[in-house]
């Protein structure tokens, strides 16, 4: 039995994200993400004026009369949401945790997909596969994904993006549109990401918090890595250390951006202190222009 307060929160998320889908992304989702293309439908007898290149020569030879192949556009998509639930996601210095922001984005994308009559699936991961919900249609199914994104309690604490992408490739044999929502604090995953992006349309959604990039001038500080459970001391009162910390963070962001670009994966940057609708809207607009 789901507690009443959780049901109320899910309902609030549904209302706010549905409004955003209707107001901000109306029409953009369908134009940005294409179906699987043109697929064979049936054969019928040739009618004068039909294109000769579509003649089915096997059927024509068997029947002694010309037949052509008919094709239709297959619009339906399968959308997969890969949500990083590692310990580093349960951090936030502004109005919300990274995990809560990631859950909201999962909700928006899932509702946009179901509004377009597409299937939606869900994989929650840490350093293990925590939860898999096979793709299905329907609002009830999507609300289950919203609930899991908001309230699922992971067992692992680390981040293994290679594992998540390998699992995606095993369980999804057909092409999908896959959103990987993570802070991407993980060991090298370039090769696996490149392979997955050849089979699927991968979009990386990078979730960050402003406090991750700077150290406050607060003297001796004890820092804790929630994924490795390690503690260490740092002298945040030292200006050189604070400056180096900021420089290292900028370098990490540049390296991550270059990695996505090198394997031709689109990237959406979202932050806990900025309305995520701005970042999503910017992405949809940019991709729409690129595909014209």
Description:
With 292 residues, the protein is α/β, with parallel strands linked by helices. It has two domains: 4-31 and 76-290, von Willebrand factor, type A domain (Rossmann fold, 3-Layer(aba) Sandwich); 37-74, no CATH class. It has nine helices and ten strands. The strands form three sheets. The protein has a six-stranded mixed beta sheet, with helices on both faces. A two-stranded antiparallel sheet has the order 1-2. β3 (78-84), α4 and β4 form a beta-alpha-beta unit. The radius of gyration is 23 Å and the shape is elongated. The protein starts with a helix and ends with a helix. The mean pLDDT is 86.
Question: Can you lay out the helices and strands and say which pair or pack?
Answer:
Layout: H1 4-23, H2 28-32, E1 37-45, H3 57-63, E2 67-74, E3 78-84, H4 98-115, E4 119-125, E5 129-136, H5 139-151, H6 161-171, E6 177-182, H7 190-199, E7 201-208, E8 220-225, E9 230-235, H8 239-262, E10 266-271, H9 276-290
Parallel strand pairs: 3-4, 3-6, 6-7, 7-10
Antiparallel strand pairs: 1-2, 4-5, 8-9
Helix pairs in contact: 1-4, 1-5, 4-5, 6-7
Any key phrases for this structure?
single chain; 292 residues; alpha/beta; Rossmann fold; 2 domains; six-stranded mixed beta sheet; two-stranded antiparallel ribbon; 9 helices; 10 strands; 42% helix
Helix content class: 40-55%
Q: Compute the number of structural domains.
A: 2
**The level-1 CATH class of the largest domain:** Alpha Beta
Report strand order across the widest sheet.
5-4-3-6-7-10
Q: CATH-wise, what's the superfamily of the largest domain?
A: von Willebrand factor, type A domain
Structural class by sheet pairing and helices: alpha/beta
Largest sheet: 6 strands, mixed
By DSSP (H or I, 4+ residues per run), the number of helices equals 9
CATH architecture of the largest domain: 3-Layer(aba) Sandwich
Q: Characterize the overall form.
A: elongated
The value of Rg in angstroms is 23 Å
Q: Helix and strand succession?
A: HHEHEEHEEHHEHEEEHEH
């Amino acid at each position: 039995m789901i507690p009443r307060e959780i049901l109320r929160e899910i309902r609030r998320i549904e209302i706010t994200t549905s409004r955003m889908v209707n107001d901000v992304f109306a029409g953009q989702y369908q134009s940005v993400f294409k179906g699987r293309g043109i697929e064979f439908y049936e054969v019928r007898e040739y009618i004068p004026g039909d294109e000769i290149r579509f003649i089915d020569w096997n059927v024509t030879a068997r029947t002694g009369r010309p037949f052509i192949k008919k094709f239709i556009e297959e619009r339906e998509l399968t959308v997969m949401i890969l949500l990083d639930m590692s310990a580093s996601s349960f951090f936030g210095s502004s109005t919300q945790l990274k995990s809560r922001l990631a859950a909201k984005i999962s909700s928006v994308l899932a509702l946009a997909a179901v509004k377009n009559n597409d299937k939606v699936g869900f994989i929650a991961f840490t350093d293990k596969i925590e939860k898999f919900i096979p793709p299905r249609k329907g609002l009830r199914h999507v609300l289950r994904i919203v609930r899991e994104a908001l309230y699922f309690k992971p067992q692992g604490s680390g981040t293994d993006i290679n594992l998540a992408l390998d699992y995606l490739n095993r369980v999804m044999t057909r092409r999908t549109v896959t959103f990987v929502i993570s802070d991407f604090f993980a060991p090298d995953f370039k090769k696996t990401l490149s392979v997955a992006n050849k089979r699927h349309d991968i979009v990386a959604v990078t979730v960050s918090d402003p406090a991750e990039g700077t150290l406050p001038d607060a003297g001796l500080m004890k820092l804790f890595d929630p994924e490795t459970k390690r503690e260490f001391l740092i002298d945040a009162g030292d200006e050189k250390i604070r400056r180096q910390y900021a420089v290292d963070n900028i370098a990490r962001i540049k390296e991550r951006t270059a990695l996505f670009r090198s394997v031709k994966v689109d990237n959406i940057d979202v932050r806990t202190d900025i309305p995520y609708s701005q970042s999503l809207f910017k992405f949809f607009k940019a991709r729409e222009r690129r595909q014209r």
